[in-house]
Structure formats: C-alpha cells, structure tokens
Q: What sequence folds into this?
C-alpha cells in the first residue's frame, strides 16, 4: 500500500496552519508521525460498521461510480458525533464513541470504485483537538471523553503532545458494498 504524500502534507499543513508548499516546512512534515492502521484493525472494522460511512456511500454511490471523487477530497469531510440515544456500552454505542473520540472530524480522499467493483478511499485526520464544552445533559461517559479530549487539547496548546496524523485506507469489497446498497 502506498501513502499519498500530498494527502499527508495537506492534512499536516491544515492541522498546523502552515503552508504545505513552503520548502521551509519540510522538517515539520518529516517530524510528524503518520499512523496507518492494518487493513483488519479494529478501527477499520468500526469505520466500516459506521452508519455515517454507509450512508455516505449509499447517497453518493452514483457520483462515486462516475468518478466524481477520484483523486479529490469529499467536500467538507465528515464528522463523527458522540453517541446519542443508543444503549450505553452496547456495540453501537462503543462504535460511535470510538469514532467520536479517535477521529471526530476527518477528510475523505479519493473515493472510487475499483475494477473489481469494490469501493476504496482514504480517511485522514490530524491531532486537531478542540475544546469541547460539557453539557448538563451529557452522561458520565461523554463527560469523561470530553475531559480527556480537553486534556489533550491543553497538551497540544502547551506543545507537550507531539504531532501525529492518521492515514486510514478503507476498502469495502463488492459483497460488503452490495450489502450496503441492498439495505
């Protein structure tokens, strides 16, 4: 699997608010860790179970097949929200909490259908922690996640958290795609 260097540089530059084309920033790119999960990792399994991802594929299927997003970013990316009314600690709740806590706001690049009719794309995310305000109606777990996020946000501000980005290639096989489209 090859990593698209432009996607990596763009995401790092966006996260650090620097110019991706400025040669003076090359050291920043070299010093940023890029994490690429294994294709069968739990994170990719959770992503593939996500209703947000399935709905994106379903709603944009014609555009994907017609090549609209080939070598392009999906406009406005995708945001994974905290769990809502799901039963606490159910599989669906854990999946939503994982996506909210690990990814939250992501870019999606190069959504395409391959020759074997699978769908492939890349999710990229930079450690762009933003302060999250706790709400009275948040349950204890959501409050804890927001507290943890805000701790990371503070470490980011004080430069105690070293930059990293996630580069996640995702592939839906033809059978998985057919299951999504048939529902």
A:
């Amino acid at each position: 699997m090859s990593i698209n260097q432009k996607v990596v540089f763009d995401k790092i530059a966006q996260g650090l608010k620097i110019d991706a084309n400025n040669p003076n920033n090359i050291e920043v790119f070299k010093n940023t860790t890029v994490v690429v999960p294994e294709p069968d990792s739990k994170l990719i399994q959770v992503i593939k179970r996500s209703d947000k991802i399935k709905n994106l594929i379903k709603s944009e299927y014609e555009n994907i097949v017609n090549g609209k997003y080939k070598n392009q970013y999906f406009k406005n990316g995708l945001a994974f929200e905290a769990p809502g009314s799901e039963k606490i600690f159910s599989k669906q709740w854990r999946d939503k909490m994982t996506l909210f806590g690990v990814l939250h706001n992501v870019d999606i690049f190069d959504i395409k259908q391959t020759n074997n009719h699978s769908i492939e794309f890349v999710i990229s995310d930079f450690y762009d922690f933003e302060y999250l305000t706790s709400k009275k109606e948040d349950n204890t777990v959501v409050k804890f996640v927001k507290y943890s996020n805000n701790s990371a946000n503070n470490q980011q501000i004080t430069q105690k958290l070293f930059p990293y980005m996630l580069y996640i290639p995702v592939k839906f096989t033809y059978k998985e795609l057919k299951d999504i489209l048939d529902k």
